[in-house]
Amino acid sequence: MVVLLANPTAARRPYRAPLASLFAVALLATSAGCAGGLDDPDRFTGGTGSACATSTTATGILQAQCFACHSTSSKEIGAGLDLEATGLPGRLYTTTSSSTCSSVPMANSADPANSLFLKKLTSNPGCGTRMPQGAALSDAETACLKEWLVNGKPSSP
C-alpha cells in the first residue's frame, strides 16, 4: 500500500510546525506595542532625559510640599494661589502674584526659567518669603518643577 502525502518533506520534519507557531507568537508579542494610554502624562515623567527623579513627578512634589497652603481644599489659599485646581502649569502664566511681589505673573512666558514661581523656591526670592515655608525643596525637586513649568508654557498664538 502506498500513501501519498501532499508534501512528503513535511512528514520528515515534524518539528517545523511548532517552531513556526512559536515564532509567530513571539513576533506578535513584540510588535503589539504598549496597551496603555497617556491618560495621566505625569506618571511617565522621570525617565531618560527628565529632570525629575525616577517615580517623582511635579504634581507629586506640589501635592507633598505646597497643597497644605495652596490648594482648593485649604481653608485659606495662600496668596490666592491655588496649585491644585486644573490647568497647571499653564494657568501660572496668567496668574499674578500678590501685591507683596508687585502683582507680576507667576510665570514669565518670555523666560519661563526665571519666573517668580521658581524664584520663590530659592533662598533669595526677591520678594516675599521662600517657598515652601519650613524646609526648602531639594535641588532635584526644584529642577523637576522648573522642567515642568518650562514644558507647560502655553503655545504662542
UniProtKB/TrEMBL annotation:
GO molecular-function term, one example from the UniProt record: heme binding
Coiled-coil zones: none
Top-level lineage group: Bacteria
Keywords: Signal
InterPro entries in UniProt: Cyt_c-like_dom_sf
Signal peptide segment: 1-35
Entry keyword annotation includes Signal: yes
This protein's record includes keyword NAD: no
Protein name: Cytochrome c domain-containing protein
